[in-house]
Amino acid sequence: MSTPTPAAVRKEVAAHGEQVDAEREAEQSLARRCRPRTFTQCAGQDLAATMLRRVAANRAPHHAYMFVGPRGTGKTTMARVFAAALNCPESDAGEPCGACSTCEAIAHGSDIDVVEIDAASHNKVEDARDLASKVGLAAVGGRFRVFILDEAHMLTTQAWNALLKTLEEPPAGSVFILATTEAGKVIATVEDRCHRVNFTRPATGTLSIKLQEIALTEGIHLAEDARLLIARYAQGSYRRGLGALEQVAALAEPGQVIDATLASRALGAADARLSAALFAAIVGAHHTDALALIAQAVADGLEPSAILRDLERHCREVLICTTVGAVPDSLVYSAEQRDLLAAHAQAVTAQHPIGVIDRIAAALRAISDGADARTQLEVCALNPFGATR
Ligand SMILES: Nc1ncnc2c1ncn2[C@@H]1O[C@H](COP(=O)(O)OP(=O)(O)OP(=O)(O)O)[C@@H](O)[C@H]1O
Ligand SMILES: [Mg+2]
Ligand SMILES: [Zn+2]
Question: Which of 12, 116, 249, 275 is buried deepest, with most CB atoms within 10 A?
């Protein structure tokens, strides 16, 4: 029997991948199903996208890149898009088509020229040697071989040392992408050999637009206030945002419009309006209102510590606005919230949000020491302003 050609192997692997993927598609998480396949689809990472698109268009990549940024911001996603951009036969000015068999195979993780390694579970010297030996094979047919090393900061120093040489002088057509949330933990000799690409946390507004787009394609009816609540809840992680959207959608009846009340119940996260109302009640010493708001929120199923955390976020935003004397665009995601922040920022001095933040910290500490959470929340809200604990 003759040995199969690389092209034949590639085809077989891809066909197998497609079949498995078709079976799994239905049960795949929303975040995985909606993973961007082109640079344009990667929201909020314009700098990274522009740079990598240009590199792919020139077909002259550096031999190693380090993608640095917080969780769920698209490092692995962009690494795959870059690999596709380098290898897609239909690519246009560095933008992969996202639909050809190469793009499909890369998206599904079944392309033999794109190797993804989870450094967290393969962090030993042997793993590094194994990888180095894989890199030894040159790419064929003008393709690029791309090695994506996820959680790169987890590799041991010995493992890095075993990889250094390969990283410095990989065979022609090989590209390394090291992805990490903690660049500081990657040894300097490795960092020096890589071109660094930074990934940033998207603003709530950017996330909210992405959520809207995905809700539309998925047939999820999402009201604006729910969308904003989920975007806030995501804390700058697309993955967390999409996970939350999926969780909320699972609770809705078919065809039901998801509003902030439903989303807040599904996620156990406070609606921004609750935090704002609670803040106003606290600084205005409207104790009965504060108690009523807390009682309602708890009856709606919110955890007292989650209410405290959301209140803390509102305090921080008010504090920023009072300090800079305006509502910065980076904080704004809806007209209603801009008005609320502007009103609160005008009505208080910096001492108010700072005072509440201190009390929240004390309440959270007490809760972690075993104190009753609801009582702590109420004490936090009822303590006469200016009093310390
Ligand atoms: N820029 C983006 N635009 C749109 N969706 C995104 C973006 N970044 C991430 N996502 C979504 O979030 C999911 C997780 O992204 P990804 O795995 O790329 O994050 P990561 O930065 O590698 O996170 P980690 O540090 O945890 O490995 C993707 O499947 C995708 O659905
Ligand atoms: Mg990743
Ligand atoms: Zn393609």
Answer: 275
